[in-house]
């Protein structure tokens, strides 16, 4: 399928989704959001797709919301605040839900600036790599008089703690990729010219794995933030019951006992 604002390519079990509005640093408008969500809906049930890689075209990953050309106007009279709320309800928030809920591993390769909502978009992935020249910046408060959105107020405190997340949100200082990795915001910072190679190497590792179990790992880890220990133990029990009856588990046990590499099928 052809898209106006993104590129999608699938090869060897890995789907690569590239944000393709480089002239605006891949800023988010309705057209881009709709394209990404449509692609995610197509890729999610595709058995040939084991892993998703998300990156940006050009010199930036995503500069956040497109303030000049948002594209959400529908003829309904709204105040500015009501318009922002509307765009979040039908666009930005569903995008975060779709990406975090994608049933397969998502690797995000941040190739340049991730600003505002671009930070939330990046952190919606499961494994985030960033080029050494990349950086993350929360522009909402100090530049726009808004609170961080696209999940940033939930993700940053969990990943960085109270002190760092508040300072980033209040000051709007750039967080370089190396420090983001050191602080635990992302998985790793890599050389600029090796970013996609590193992302694809990880993707190939994951594509050979038990993808059904990977989807459950994502779901169980997400649930932990809201569950008590007893609730999480019960969730683990239920999921293990399901996965214990899969072909992949039987293959994994057999491969372990016979000291060979497992050949998983995602079943």
Count the domains: 2
Strand and helix order? EEHEEHEEHEEHHHEHEHHHH
Which shape, going by the Cα principal axes? globular
Helical content class? 40-55%
CATH topology of the largest domain: the name is: 2-enoyl-CoA Hydratase, Chain A, domain 1
Radius of gyration: 19 Å
Mean pLDDT: 96
Beta strands, count: 10
Count of helix runs:
11
Strand order of the largest sheet: 1-2-3-5-7-10
Biggest sheet statistics: 6 strands, mixed
How would you describe this protein?
With 267 residues, the chain is of the alpha/beta class. It has two domains: 6-207, 2-enoyl-CoA Hydratase, Chain A, domain 1 (Alpha-Beta Complex); 211-257. The protein has eleven helices and ten strands. A six-stranded mixed β-sheet has the order 1-2-3-5-7-10, with helices on both faces. The chain has a four-stranded mixed β-sheet with strand order 4-6-8-9.
Features:
alpha/beta; 6-stranded mixed beta sheet; 11 helices; 267 residues; 2-enoyl-CoA Hydratase, Chain A, domain 1
Secondary structure: elements and pairs:
Blueprint: E1 6-11, E2 14-19, H1 30-43, E3 51-56, E4 60-62, H2 80-100, E5 106-110, E6 113-115, H3 117-123, E7 127-131, E8 135-137, H4 140-144, H5 152-160, H6 162-171, E9 175-176, H7 177-183, E10 188-190, H8 195-207, H9 211-224, H10 229-243, H11 247-257
Parallel strand pairs: 2-3, 3-5, 4-6, 5-7, 6-8, 7-10
Antiparallel strand pairs: 1-2, 8-9
């Amino acid at each position: 399928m052809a898209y106006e604002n993104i590129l999608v390519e699938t090869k060897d079990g890995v789907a690569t989704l590239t944000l393709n509005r480089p002239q605006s640093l891949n800023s988010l408008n309705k057209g881009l959001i709709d394209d990404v969500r449509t692609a995610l809906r197509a890729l999610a049930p595709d058995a040939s797709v084991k892993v998703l890689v998300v990156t940006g075209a050009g010199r930036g990953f995503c500069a956040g919301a497109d303030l000049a050309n948002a594209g959400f106007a529908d003829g309904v009279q709204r105040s500015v605040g009501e318009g922002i709320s509307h765009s979040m309800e039908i666009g930005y928030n569903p995008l975060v839900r779709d990406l975090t809920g994608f049933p397969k591993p998502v690797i995000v390769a941040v190739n340049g600036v991730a600003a505002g909502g671009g930070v939330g978009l990046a952190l919606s992935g499961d494994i985030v790599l960033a080029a050494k020249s990349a950086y993350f910046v929360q522009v909402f408060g100090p530049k726009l008089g808004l609170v961080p959105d696209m999940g940033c107020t939930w993700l940053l405190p969990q990943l960085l703690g109270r002190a760092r997340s508040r300072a980033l949100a209040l000051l709007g200082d750039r967080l370089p990729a190396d420090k983001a990795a050191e602080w635990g915001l992302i998985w790793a910072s890599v050389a600029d010219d090796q970013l996609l190679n590193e992302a694809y190497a990880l993707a190939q590792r994951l594509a050979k794995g038990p993808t059904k179990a990977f989807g459950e790992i994502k779901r169980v880890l997400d649930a932990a933030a809201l569950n008590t220990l007893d609730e999480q133990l019960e969730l683990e029990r239920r999921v293990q019951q399901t996965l214990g009856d899969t072909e992949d588990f039987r293959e994994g046990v057999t491969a372990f006992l016979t000291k060979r590499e497992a050949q998983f099928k995602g079943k």
